[in-house]
């Protein structure tokens, strides 16, 4: 009956054949490049976990996009439970579990229990608290969430309104939401799932003021462990209102929460007291000391964000490159052969200009993310490497810029690839819809992309100030060296030979960033201009500095030798050029006005970019193959 | 029991009070500005239809985002039916119906019946066919769709594969899909709802070739009216496979279709034969003549796209401005007053730079869209205005650029506003999620944004060629005049005084576009470079030309006088400046290298943009109020 089963695609549109031809056009050794990018442990893990997950029907993505939001939540619970069972059956370690979550590619309601809640408890519990809670957390006897953000305050944590008032008479804390805006908001896993939560509240203490009068004030936001729901009934405890905030952009299976407290009492032991504690008998409060270990943790966290961003770009580009290589539309306008076939869409320069620089970006982010991770590993295993520690301290101050740039590039990449695929890009067949909806939170969370760039700028202004006040001082870190180079020659226009010399590319990026740093310093420290009036320039400065980091790391990696065959290395070099020249072309005015690159060179860049794209084009399919993304993940 | 009901927002976060204060800061007469923008007929219609819809529970958006895709479809059917009933009850005309669809803000499965199907039948039917079909269409006795796009071909309509073969023995056409890629694809209303469809297929005729041998060939794609489903059972007719293509980016209630034919026979009368016909007895085919009325239709259609784009931006900006005016986060870093309150987020320059140029863009698009519509109306009511007709002909060739630019700006605006709102931007409370998901098809449909810009470039290259070949010829249209101005002075660098003189702003935009047109001409016509190697530059040319159109129309409107009070006119002038300077700043390299604007002026632009945003900031809430978007539409 179903005669459509015998139909074949038009002769010119046989996907498998076309991809086979594409792969024949390139000499890249995909397997070797994959190992270079990911290492064998990662690739082995991906295969091993994939085999297990593919057998489990509950993780099938086939009908997911048709479900209602409540059904997505229930499916999420079932998936979470099954994943936990698999973890026990196969004795998965943390990396295995992360890989499983990545391949399942659907946030589970238990996610915050495993991630933020567990991490916060590990970090904030006293030894005694940890002994009590850790087994319950590991066995999922309790399910925890992390409640910090409120309706009224997200970025500004110090502004949160929930109060935890110490009552010395009963030796309890009283949690109270004085306003509607004090409502906890956005807290994942808490809307329906969690039994417990870390709750961040202003710790309110009464102390005698200078006049000897008792005065209540906050000593700052502190974390408490709070039971939220009854273990038997799963109903909220008295004095707690908690629920799901409803639909949001992505994360359909996640129960993001609102939560309010009305004079809800929690015991003294609820205050997580590794860093700060309150003596229950004397009421004396011991303030937290800042911990230096946070440097490494933050750098590690930011490297994960960058590596994740490069995988998101890799995924969008993989889907786009394969489809656009197969898809043909219109005969070449200049062709005089009436029998000529239609042009593969990936051959159009207007399509290449959107896809191939992104392909190069995935590599650029990869090398920077790797370098950050390696630096973190080195400093963790040894505390004697002073150079590394100086670099880590600097990275701590500047990695906010990389977070901002990487998540911005990745979030935009999905939509760029989607649009480049034309009509079919709008369809569910791309596998990109949920990826986009879920990933679009990333430019906001873990530091809003436009806000946190101030950190980078503040650090750079400080570094320029040091230089201006002591021009002869030793330049230790790379940034100091770059700033010194610029400072010494700042009245020249070096116009680096970026087209001839790769080291000059790095110099040009550093020069432009240094120039912008000095301008920011002058505006703030010399002209004393208001901080708010500088924010747009500071954001641009952070971007310029982060782009320079990406280019420098990419260049360093290529110079150190990537241990790959000649033809693959040549293509990697082309990707480095494409990323660099496309970025310079996009930001041409900044390179020009800083004197980093001259007008004649800038005028040549668009043609150079076209040439590079033509060079890379035959390797596009093999390059995305090397990202080793399983079809299972691509949702095919 | 629910003690949370009595809670108030924190004192500094009372939305209604803050908005009232915001409105007190500005003298703009919102009502007058609304009437200036929309006219009283539109505003009256919006109020009238709104009152009717608000009473209808079925149009409530409250739970929409929680539903499954099948339930969204069923809800869509019910809504469509109710809308049709309301149309009959209130004797709505076409404009009323469009307003109702706009306010309901959820595409209904019947949408294509009312729009594309009805329009195609109106346009393509012979008189006899129209008499037969029109009553059935108007009464919804049949529900129609429009099936042109195929799995293998969208943009390139001439490449579609479905065949309609004339069988002279039975005087029927035989519809047949020879391949899988010949499957109709994306066709709205057809997946589950429609009984009929206009089906576009290659009309295959057998004709004697030069050697006298009968040869079958396509005379091109032609439209047929085809019954798809049985009226009683709603099952597809024999020889037709049709169904829903499944989830896609937005348009949850819409049943986009795939459809295949296996030697399915349709009568001779199925060929829509207003423009082309086949004599059933002789088999002689009469080819279509190109119709000049299509100029006006296309211009009208493009003006609708531009006006729709400006409403999408207006909506995103309205939500963002109101929220960001209320939302406060962080105290001013430079404040020494410890009691200072947190800063409204809209006061941060990094937020303003994302929102306020978009606010200006909504006005710029508005005036261009209006001008297009008025031109269309003028030429329709009178055919004697030669100047208007010349302008219309030019607009026909260049409006593709406006479609591309306007939908790109609008599609990006929603995401820009969403991100500027930080965490809450990710939430469903913005009312922007569905708007974004639905609107994201617009950069692709009705001419892919990167593809159709070739039309503009082709037209401009032709115009430059005429100029180069006859430099003394009369320059009739505006474009010809601009090109002539540039051509005559092309070896100079005029460096227009854009900061001093508004007319110079328009000149600078025209100069830059003309310069790029001449470069494109030289590359193509003089250096004979391949078309594909120029596509990126041609896209930039179209963008530059379209931006010049927006700026020129905005300027003309202000010069002609907008009939508003002085303070409102002053703010409109600031919006014109903001749109112009922000665009010049963003595209600075092109203005610089064409010699349209000098480096010193370009260097002043960022500060000038900051100043303009400070000027506009107090008026932001009243400006978005003037868009007159009902809370009902904003999904509050």
Automatic annotation (TrEMBL), chains A, B:
An example Gene Ontology CC term for this record: peroxisome
Stretches of the chain forming a coiled coil according to its record: none
Keyword entries, A-Z: FAD, Fatty acid metabolism, Flavoprotein, Lipid metabolism, Oxidoreductase, Peroxisome
Subcellular location: Peroxisome
Pfam assignment, any one: Acyl-CoA_ox_N
Biological pathway: Lipid metabolism; peroxisomal fatty acid beta-oxidation
The protein's required cofactors: FAD
InterPro entries: ACOX_C_alpha1, Acyl-CoA_ox_N, Acyl-CoA_Oxase/DH_mid-dom_sf, Acyl-CoA_oxidase, Acyl-CoA_oxidase_C, AcylCo_DH-like_C, AcylCoA_DH/ox_N_sf, AcylCoA_DH/oxidase_NM_dom_sf
UniProt-annotated binding residues for FAD: 149, 188
Catalytic activity: a 2,3-saturated acyl-CoA + O2 = a (2E)-enoyl-CoA + H2O2
An individual GO BP term: lipid homeostasis
Catalytic residues (UniProt): 446 (proton acceptor)
Domain Acyl-CoA oxidase C-terminal: 503-634
Domain (Acyl-CoA oxidase C-alpha1) ranges: 295-461
The organism's place on the tree of life at top rank: Eukaryota
GO molecular function: acyl-CoA oxidase activity; FAD binding; fatty acid binding
Domain Acyl-coenzyme A oxidase N-terminal: 29-143
Family: Belongs to the acyl-CoA oxidase family.
This protein's name: Acyl-coenzyme A oxidase
